Sequence to fold (291 residues):
Amino acid sequence: MHDWLQLDGVYLAGMCCLIAESVDGPVAWQWCDREKQAAWAALLRQVPAPLVVICDGQPGLLAALKQVWPSTVVQRCLVHVRRDVRTDLTTRPKTPAGQVLLELAARLPRITDSVQASEWLVRLDAWWQTFGHLTSEKTYRSDVDEADIPSWAKPNQQWWYTHKRLRSAWRLLNKLARDHDLFRYLEPDLASLVVPSTTNRIEGGVNAQLRRLLGHHRGMPPTHQQRAVEWWLWLHSPHHPAPVTLIRPEHLQPVKPRIVDTPDKPAGYDKGISAEEGLWARKGWAGRWQQ
Fold:
């Protein structure tokens, strides 16, 4: 049983490895082609449900959590939230509304107590009171020139939100605040568990190490890479048995494959020189040079 788990997926060896990380190390992993609900559900069924899950909010993972661990609460990674808002608003928003909202998102990972969290929520509400009308403004195709139509507008689309990216960033922050998924780590009944507010532990302590492992051993086929990843995860998982206990008697006395030679084919094992293998007595200049 674990009080909290960090969940994340990393793409390695041409596939995606879903990993569950506890305070003691990796506790479960699952290979899949991409992050989707069925793959996440297969991972979640490997371990008992914790009290809290820290994740980046991937849609397939959130759907699997509701299906397999319905009683587990979610703490969204504040670094990922800040990154998603910055993706919508860019690093240099041109409007005051975007600048203030970006500054609010940048403050999220630095909040350390409930007082700062309450002040942040008040500022978010103040932003809505001041700039909220911008999120519902619409632009109609009939009112703009053809050159001013955004590239993402569909051919038959008659209207679109004027500040689409601003609206997207606001909706993300507002939904997380409404669902209480931003400051779970500050709730009194969970404060004693020392719940992290980001997935930095699994990002830097597991994902980065796996990428470094495969980078140091280039040239392995995909199946060999997957075994190397599984071996690293197994070695760093809590309470794993000693590797020597994996040795079985048949490993100490391996059975050599039996090779049956046929008269019309080259010998499987032989000391002779065979032209079929590109080996023969050489003559001429090459032979004199070897002498």
Observations:
- Residues 78-178 form one domain.
- Strands lie at 4-12, 15-22, 25-32, 52-55, 73-76, 138-140, 159-161.
- The chain has two domains: 1-77+198-252, 78-178.
